[in-house]
Design a protein that fits this description.
The protein has 399 residues and is an alpha+beta fold. It has eleven helices and 17 strands. The protein folds into two domains: 8-17 and 166-386, Creatine Amidinohydrolase (Alpha-Beta Complex); 47-164, Creatine Amidinohydrolase, Chain A, domain 1. It has a six-stranded mixed beta sheet with strand order 4-3-2-1-5-6, with helices on both faces. The longest helix is centred in the middle third of the chain and has 23 residues, at 169-191. The chain starts with 7 loop residues before the first helix and ends in a 13-residue tail after the last strand. It comes from Niveispirillum lacus.
């Protein structure tokens, strides 16, 4: 599929004709949620702690199947040694939460005029230490300390990261499907480009395309940047208009059963300049170096180092200086689009099979242009494997 020459209507019609449900992997089964809870309790005991509290958000969905965003009202999973899992929630939300639950759990209800921290304190009577979700708000921690002053509170990061960091085969399948669909939409977005098209038109097409393939809620995000705006990793304000010879950077993703895609492609509408070609080739080499360095037993920061060494070889950087790579080489991905661990200096997490990362060592030429090639990879016993194949060349970005 080439750059330009098609229309949004034609590409959406082609997507509509495909049965996307046929290849869609199943949702995470209830047995997997229970296995995750069992693993969490084993890690909690090793801390040591007697109980674990998981707040609303991605981790709650991971353990219970409940896709519930954090608000000022406490919704949480409480795990206690020797007890059934318990779901803490406002009484008036019980019906909605029960419909989404994938586990068998005790229900602990609180009314609008009650302090849920007091309910937690009562449920934790007899337990010395609580491991608390690091994403829980400080206000909850403060109220809990007031309601249960003798309760010790520990950081639950090692437990949550120990469970969520290494993806199962079912998770990898959902991630793979999401990324494959987003890459196909990238190809179709390139096909609808023409001089004068606005970034907002491209974003609207990408969102409609993600909805057509059955993504949870259309695009989770979409950045469309032309020309000079590509020199800024997250773009510039305003609705840009494409011109002949502009470098194009599109970064977008979706969710399938909560699992994220996040892919970036950079190419030129028209004929690339010599400098476009030079920087694009260095970017591709740096992305490949990061991929080659991502092996079990090595550290996250060593992958970042591998990409930066390539850039320095061509006189870019060093470190985070421009022209060069101003941000980390990659991030973990799963039920959150950015989750730990990270491919960045200082993150000494040891790579292990099942870990998933973006690979995006962007090169920025200040006030001129930027090139970001972003694909995702997962760690296997033998090294890294791509979810999606990287862009082959600046002239044929989709092969």
């Amino acid at each position: 599929m080439s750059i330009g020459g098609s229309t949004a209507a034609a590409e959406l019609a082609a997507l509509t004709a495909i049965d996307h449900r046929a290849a869609r992997p199943p949702a995470i089964p209830p047995a997997d949620h229970q296995a995750r809870i069992d693993q969490a309790m084993r890690l909690t005991a090793q801390m040591p702690a007697g109980a674990l509290l998981i707040g609303a958000g991605a981790s709650l969905r991971y353990f219970t199947g409940v896709a519930w965003g954090a608000t000022e009202r406490l919704v949480a999973l409480l795990l206690r040694r020797g007890r059934r899992p318990a779901l803490v929630c406002p009484a008036f939300e019980l019906g909605s939460l029960k419909e989404a639950m994938a586990i068998d759990a005790e229900i602990l209800l609180w009314e609008e005029d009650e302090n849920p921290a007091e309910l937690l304190a009562s449920a934790l009577a007899g337990f010395e230490t609580l491991a608390l979700d690091p994403s829980a708000p400080f206000g909850l921690y403060a109220r809990l300390r007031e309601a249960a002053p003798i309760l010790k509170v520990a950081d639950a990061s090692p437990i949550i990261d120990g469970c969520r960091g290494r993806k199962s085969a079912a998770e990898l399948a959902l991630l793979s499907f999401a990324k494959a669909k987003t890459l196909d939409i990238h190809r179709r977005a390139a096909a609808i480009l023409h001089p004068g098209i606005r970034a907002s038109e491209v974003k609207r097409f990408i969102d409609q395309a993600h909805r057509t393939i059955g993504a949870d809620n259309g695009s989770t995000f979409c950045a469309v940047q032309f020309g000079r705006a590509t020199a800024f990793p997250h773009g510039l304000p305003g609705d840009q208009e494409l011109a002949e010879g502009d470098i194009v950077l599109i970064d977008t993703g979706c969710q399938i059963e909560g699992y994220h895609s996040d892919i970036t492609r950079t190419y030129v509408y028209g004929e690339p300049t010599a400098e476009h070609r030079r920087i694009w080739a260095i970017e591709k080499e740096a992305q490949q170096a990061a991929f080659d360095a991502a092996r079990p037993g090595r550290t996250c920061e060593s992958v970042d180092d591998a990409a930066r060494l390539i850039l320095e070889r061509y006189g870019l950087g060093p470190d985070y200086k421009l022209p060069g790579l101003p941000h980390r080489t990659g991030h973990g991905i799963g039920l959150q689009i950015h989750e730990g661990p990270y491919l960045v200096r200082g993150d000494r997490t040891v790579l292990a099979p099942g870990m998933c990362f973006s690979n995006e060592p962007m090169i920025v030429i200040p006030d001129a242009f930027g090139v970001r090639l972003e694909d995702h990879m997962y760690i296997t016993e033998d090294g890294a494997a791509w979810f999606t194949q990287p862009s082959p060349s600046i002239d044929k970005p989709f092969g």
